[in-house]
Amino acid sequence: MCSLPVPREPLRRVAVTGGTHGNEMCGVHLVRHWLQTPGELQRPSFSAMPVLANPAATAACRRYIDRDLNRTFTLTFLKGLPPAGTPDSLELSNQGRELQNPGLSCHFLQYDPAGTGSYSLESVSKNGICLEMGPQPQGVLRADLFSRMRALVASILDFIELFNQGMAFPAFEMDIYRTVDSVDFPRTADGDLAGTVHPQLQDHDFEPLRPGEPIFKLFSGEDVLYEGNSIVYPVFINEAAYYEKHVAFLKTEKIRVSVPALPEITSTLVP
Amino acid sequence: MCSLPVPREPLRRVAVTGGTHGNEMCGVHLVRHWLQTPGELQRPSFSAMPVLANPAATAACRRYIDRDLNRTFTLTFLKGLPPAGTPDSLELSNQGRELQNPGLSCHFLQYDPAGTGSYSLESVSKNGICLEMGPQPQGVLRADLFSRMRALVASILDFIELFNQGMAFPAFEMDIYRTVDSVDFPRTADGDLAGTVHPQLQDHDFEPLRPGEPIFKLFSGEDVLYEGNSIVYPVFINEAAYYEKHVAFLKTEKIRVSVPALPEITSTLVP
């Protein structure tokens, strides 16, 4: 074994937030449950703190009251840079592949909001990760998605525990999806919808969309075709919360990335 | 042929309302579309009038602003009784079966709110019918459901046209679902959810639920079983809008009803 001595600070302060949007029920009810039974978030080296992020919106079962909380963390000074030796969130995917059942497999989305800087809640943490579960209806708590979200969080806490113990993680390659831009719904001159997502695109998040394939069905019966000149991978297709943001779907490109190894830290290296 | 002379007044004043709840997008956008292109609602003997029922809630994309509009029409004096010779809504089901494609088949739900009297918008009309489409997410316009709703409305208008022309409709039998009572979610002492609809019940509207079968999955992992002593047919299972009404699902019973014939009216009988 050829482990280089790498400074690696254990993660001790971990928060799990839910209900940033008050009508996303998995997060709301998981956090409420963990506030009653915090043992589920405890590991030998740390205890994650459950946080109900937006109690007012949660009480109203609405995405937000005055403004979208998850678009609000925009000030540069709120952001800390990750210290050397903390884990890249992508390491989690390998952890998930190796230690958990296939039902926990995820897509990894790199979201760089063009020109605006970070604005989401997890961006204020040193090592934030956002779990998106869906498509799922607003205001509905489905047992299958609740269980999956719960298992995903447990898997992440297990990874942090292994990281804190100094465990080695091998290098690997993986596909991730990087946002390119967004596409609005077709609209009338007055701004009303003139159609909606085409049945051939609906429910096909993360699948390839080829030039010439239909993306919208107009109320007049006509199809609108995708006019790009390369394959893209639409995500957040027909998301209820994004109508007001003029987003029918996000276009992403699939790219291959290399995730470096995290070498083992032996007990002699830990201060 | 043995047609009895039956007084049958043609239906001339027909309204099609949408957006009674501002986040039920099929109705909202069909009505908006028909307001622009009213020809779709015209038939030789009448023109149906499109009505956007709750513009304020529609603009906010919320079920309602101050109170649920579709629980508001409670005053007895608002109700007119159907005059003799107008069609029973159940006639429509036969019409649907015979003239339309199988994709338009529906379940017929007889809803008698216990002790409260009628309260919904269609109850103020002489011959009201409410089309429910779902389950579907609030705030999302799906092209498949939009097309289906549009075709269902067209089928109803076609039926009214045939009725107005004096066409005969044969007697038939059909199954309908009659509401028995409602079941709330499992809750903690504080009123929070203690679990949600069981995966074996989720998405199984109008299917038989037998005594001893699971209805809820508690966050603790335990199952809650249906303790009734007869088969029921749950509907409105895990409907987002009904959490606040403390309804996880409605129990219905399936009953067989006979729908009498509407005899033909010949031109000599029409005044």
From TrEMBL, chains A, B:
Residues 173-254 form the AstE/AspA barrel-sandwich hybrid domain. GO terms for cellular component: apical plasma membrane; cytosol. It is a peripheral membrane protein. It holds the Pfam family AstE_AspA_cat. InterPro entries: AspA/AstE_fam (IPR050178), Aspartoacylase (IPR016708), AstE_AspA_cat (IPR055438), Aste_AspA_hybrid_dom (IPR007036). The active site is at 132 (proton donor/acceptor). Zn(2+) binds at residues 21, 24. Its cofactor is Zn(2+). SUPFAM superfamilies: Zn-dependent exopeptidases. The keyword Secreted does not apply. Residues 11-79, 100-160 form the Succinylglutamate desuccinylase/Aspartoacylase catalytic domain. It catalyses: an N-acyl-aromatic L-alpha-amino acid + H2O = an aromatic L-alpha-amino acid + a carboxylate; an N-acetyl-L-cysteine-S-conjugate + H2O = an S-substituted L-cysteine + acetate. Binds 1 zinc ion per subunit. Belongs to the AspA/AstE family. Aspartoacylase subfamily. One of its GO terms (molecular function) is hydrolase activity, acting on ester bonds. This is N-acyl-aromatic-L-amino acid amidohydrolase. It comes from Neotoma lepida.
